Structures are given as structure tokens and as C-alpha cells.
């Protein structure tokens, strides 16, 4: 019985990114593209997932555009929070890790982009990294950053981590980000 319980726990941890949700096909128009700095193209693994440094433009291409566009268009921002957040994001850099195979990443990554678009975020201050199911990339972009769940959005000021959003929000994505960048007490979803 102990072995069975252990096997179930190991399988649950290995498959965890959060809940695995099926994407919904939609005919909603693509969100507006934003000018982005030139970055290397991510690779596509044997399972059809993006791996490596990626950008919003990659998510606007099939097959990723189905879930990206649907979740981007259908998320309603709290405009008051966005107004407060906008000046606070000016001196922030973000290193984000997501998996195109992960339901939580498919839900939260478009929301992050919608928030960043609404706050006129400077995209040269964002590094979006798509990881495989082991939460790694071939060139180890995750190394030393303690990325155990995706999505993980790490926020920095002056090259120092000020907080991170992990997998799903405590309140809403924009409220959680506001707490992080304003210096309020914040614990991500897996901190006690």
C-alpha cells in the first residue's frame, strides 16, 4: 500500500504544472501584436510544445493561438488596479517560465500579456521562457531559479528578486503583481 501511495504521489508531482485543462477553439480575433525585440526562436519539441525563449508573437501562431487568444480576450482586467500598477512596472524586469503543455500556463500567460499590454510595459524587460514537462530547457535557462511549477513569473528591481507569482493567483493576476511590485506583503500560492 505504501508503494502504491508513493507511486501516485510521484506521478502527481511529475505531471503537475497545475490542472491540465483542454483548450477551447475560438474564432475571436487575435490580440494586437506588440513590437518586440529580436530574440532567438524557440524550438518545438517532439510533442509539439515550444521550448526556449519565446515571445507573444509565438503564442499568436497555431496551435498556441487557440488557447492564447481565447484567454487573452476573455480576461477582464481590473482597470483601477491597472492604473495603480502602470507606474510601478516602469523599473521592473520579469523572467517568466511557462509550459505550452500546461493548463495553468495556458490560462495565466495570456493574462500576464494582457496586463503588460494595458500598462505599456517595455517588452525588452520581459524574458518569457517555455520549458518542457521537467521544467527545463536544453540550455538550462531555469538553472538556479527554483522553478518547480509553471507558470512562474519572477519580478526583479535592480537585478534583485522582489517576488514571484507561481501557478495561479491568490486574488487576481493583476492584484498579485501589484502586491509584489509595490512591496506589500505577498506570498505566492505555495508559500504558507
Automatic annotation (TrEMBL):
Entry annotated with the keyword Aminoacyl-tRNA synthetase: no
CDD domains: TRX_family
Keyword flag Plastid: no
Keywords, comma-separated and alphabetical: Signal
Signal peptide: 1-21
UniProt xrefs under InterPro entries: Thioredoxin-like_sf, Thioredoxin_domain
Domain called Thioredoxin: residue spans: 28-186
Record-given protein name: Thioredoxin
Amino acid at each position: 500500500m505504501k508503494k502504491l501511495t508513493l507511486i501516485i504521489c510521484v506521478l502527481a508531482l511529475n505531471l503537475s504544472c497545475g490542472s491540465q485543462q483542454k483548450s477551447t477553439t475560438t474564432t475571436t480575433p487575435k490580440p494586437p501584436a506588440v513590437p518586440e525585440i529580436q530574440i532567438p526562436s524557440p524550438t518545438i519539441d517532439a510533442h509539439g510544445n515550444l521550448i526556449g525563449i519565446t515571445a507573444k508573437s509565438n503564442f499568436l501562431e497555431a496551435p498556441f493561438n487557440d488557447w492564447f487568444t481565447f484567454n487573452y480576450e476573455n480576461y477582464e482586467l481590473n482597470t483601477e488596479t491597472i492604473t495603480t500598477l502602470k507606474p510601478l512596472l516602469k523599473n521592473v524586469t520579469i523572467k517568466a517560465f511557462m509550459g505550452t503543455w500546461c493548463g495553468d500556463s495556458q490560462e495565466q500567460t495570456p493574462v500576464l500579456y494582457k496586463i503588460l499590454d494595458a500598462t505599456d510595459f517595455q517588452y525588452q524587460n520581459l524574458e518569457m521562457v517555455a520549458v518542457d514537462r521537467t521544467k527545463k530547457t536544453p540550455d538550462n535557462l531555469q538553472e538556479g531559479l527554483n522553478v518547480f511549477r509553471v507558470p512562474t513569473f519572477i519580478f526583479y528591481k535592480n537585478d534583485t528578486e522582489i517576488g514571484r507569482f507561481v501557478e495561479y493567483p491568490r486574488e487576481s493576476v493583476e492584484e498579485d503583481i501589484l502586491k509584489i511590485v509595490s512591496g506589500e506583503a505577498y506570498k505566492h500560492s505555495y508559500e504558507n
